[in-house]
Amino acid sequence: MRIKTIVIIVITILLTIVLMQNTGRVNFDFLWATFWMSKLVMLFFVAAISFVLGVLVGRPKRVKRLGGDYTDPNLDKGNPNTLSDEDKEYIN
């Protein structure tokens, strides 16, 4: 098995254990509302929201291009010696 698979299995087992140990009902105050809810349900919602946020933050961003590729009009591809006199003096 790969390390990534083992880590995912261990985290899933630990999350399941934590959820099963917290099944009691507690009083939750959310803004102006007060309600009773099982800790199991609340922990499940927090875990699901955290997973979704992690996926959204962790995915690679798509690069938007505003136009075509930029090419320098002063670039002379046929001439390999494109250093200026100042650059040549600096190198020497």
Order of SSEs, N→C?
Answer: HEEHH
Alpha carbon gap, first and last residue: 56 Å
| Silhouette | elongated
Q: How many strand units?
A: 2
Give the integer mean of the pLDDT values: 79
Strand order of the largest sheet: 1-2
Textual characterization of the structure:
The structure is a single chain. With 92 residues, the chain is of the alpha+beta class. Helix content is 50%, strand content 13%. Strand 1 and strand 2 form a beta hairpin. It starts with a helix and ends with a helix. The mean pLDDT is 79.
Question: Keywords, please?
Answer:
92 residues; 13% strand; single chain; two-stranded antiparallel ribbon; alpha+beta; 3 helices
Summarize the structure.
The protein has 92 residues and is an alpha+beta fold. 50% of the residues lie in helices and 13% in strands. It is elongated.
Write the layout of secondary structure elements.
Blueprint: H1 3-21, E1 25-30, E2 33-38, H2 39-58, H3 85-91
Antiparallel strand pairs: 1-2
